[in-house]
From TrEMBL, chain A:
InterPro entries: Intradiol_dOase_core, TAT_signal. This is Twin-arginine translocation pathway signal. PROSITE patterns: TAT (PS51318). GO terms for molecular function: iron ion binding; oxidoreductase activity, acting on single donors with incorporation of molecular oxygen, incorporation of two atoms of oxygen.
From TrEMBL, chain B:
Keywords: Membrane, Transmembrane, Transmembrane helix. InterPro entries: Fe3_Rdtase_TM_dom. It is found in: Membrane. The lineage of its organism: Bacteria, Pseudomonadati, Pseudomonadota, Alphaproteobacteria, Hyphomicrobiales. This is Myxococcales GC_trans_RRR domain-containing protein. Residues 47-160 form the Ferric oxidoreductase domain. It comes from the Bacteria. It is a multi-pass membrane protein. It comes from Bradyrhizobium shewense. GO terms for cellular component: membrane. The chain crosses the membrane at residues 39-66, 78-98, 118-136, 148-169, 175-195.
Length: 162, 212
């Protein structure tokens, strides 16, 4: 029968061994996960209407909403992903159907949709974007413009499998 | 002496009218209004008017708005307090109708907009003061107790309203908004210092006009 003796030397050796193997073991998986998925922003889903149609342009345009869609972990661009976009614009309020539209990402995972000028609503000039197509976890974004005078806004998605 | 006093009284009234009137007029000229529905516009202006009433309140209680007597100044302070609570109700109800999810986020302190918690906190402080003022007699609150409750809430209302307003990007014009906010802070600080609200005293009655 083995008798385990707890003396200072044993503890130091054992502790050192745990630190040498255990700590990197605890830290490394985080790095292996790579690009973290985008979290849904608070208020992002406000005034969302499911199933906005894919279109070349929302209304008369004049403002550009653009961004990228990538896969969590390896960061690979995701092509053909449907991104829904809506905002309070010069042509309608957030909840109104004419303020909603959708577009698809290209082969580089980029999307770009022309829409009417976004104007401040509820104290901030902001837009809303959604990925809500099922293959990956649903994400709602609510980017804020630095100034109401800007004529473009971008938002980036990193999606994780549903 | 009396000439100077009446001139001063007129000046204060003119300044007050400008301090509240100019921001309202500037907001009325905002191009943002073209993209807003009537309910949203009403809600916005109710908010601006509420901030204007927050400026009137310390001036009334400090007795700066001559020729209002101390008694009438306090009566007006009560009625304006009621009007302030009413304006806030219109503000919140109008915003709720405009965009229910955004208003629910704000009221539950879950809003992404940094100004919302300041406004909502000021709102609860306004409602608390209004409710306590209505029940003050029934609760038999002594003047000292009342002041102990009202003064911290008044500070919450003033600071909350000013921060709320300054952080909002909306119809208000920046400079007239900032001036109104500074005046609200200055009037509140002046009255609190002049009346030495932190000092233990049995009553304020009859003192408000005497100090000038």
């Amino acid at each position: 029968m083995a008798i385990v003796v707890f003396n200072r030397r044993n503890l130091l050796v054992a502790g050192g061994a745990v630190l040498a193997t255990g700590l990197p073991g605890l830290l490394l998986p985080a790095r292996a996960n790579g690009l973290a998925p985008t979290e849904t922003m608070s208020g992002g889903a406000n005034n969302y209407r499911k199933g906005a149609a894919i279109m070349d342009r929302i209304g008369k345009g004049g403002f550009w909403m653009s961004g990228t869609v990538r896969r969590a972990g390896d960061g690979a661009p995701l092509a053909g992903q449907r991104i829904q976009i809506w905002a309070h614009t010069t042509e309608g309020q957030e909840h109104e159907p004419q303020s909603h539209g959708a577009t698809l990402t290209d082969k580089d995972g980029k999307f770009r949709l022309e829409m009417p000028q976004i104007i401040p609503i509820f104290g901030q000039p902001h837009g809303h974007l959604a990925y809500d197509s099922g293959e990956f976890k649903t994400v709602f974004l609510r980017p804020v413009m630095r100034s109401a005078k800007e004529t473009s806004l971008d938002a980036h998605f990193v999606l994780q499998p549903a | 002496m009396t000439g100077w006093r009446s001139a001063r009284a007129i000046l204060i009234w003119v300044a007050l009218a400008l301090a509240i009137g100019v921001p309202i007029a500037a907001a009325a000229g905002s191009e943002q209004l073209a993209w807003r529905g009537p309910v949203y516009i009403l809600a916005g202006f109710a908010g601006i008017i509420a901030l204007g009433l927050v400026l009137v309140q310390p001036l009334l209680i400090g007795g700066y708005l001559t020729p209002l007597s101390a008694y009438r100044g306090r009566r007006a302070h009560h009625w304006i307090g009621g009007a302030l609570a009413f304006a806030v109700v219109i503000h919140v109800a109008g915003l709720w109708i405009t965009s229910p999810p955004d208003m629910i986020d704000a009221l539950t302190y879950a809003s992404p907009t940094p100004f919302s918690p300041f406004g909502v906190t000021a709102m609860w402080a306004i409602f608390a003061v209004a409710l306590l003022a209505l029940m003050r007699r029934r609760l038999e609150l002594r003047p000292r107790t009342w002041r102990l409750i009202h003064m911290p809430l008044a500070i919450v209302i003033v600071v909350g309203s000013v921060v709320h307003c300054l952080l909002i990007e909306g119809t208000m014009e920046t400079i007239s908004k900032a001036v109104l906010c500074v005046l609200v802070l200055a009037a509140t600080a002046k009255v609190m210092i002049n009346l030495q609200v932190w000092r233990k005293r049995r009553t304020l009655r009859g003192e408000s006009v005497a100090r000038q």
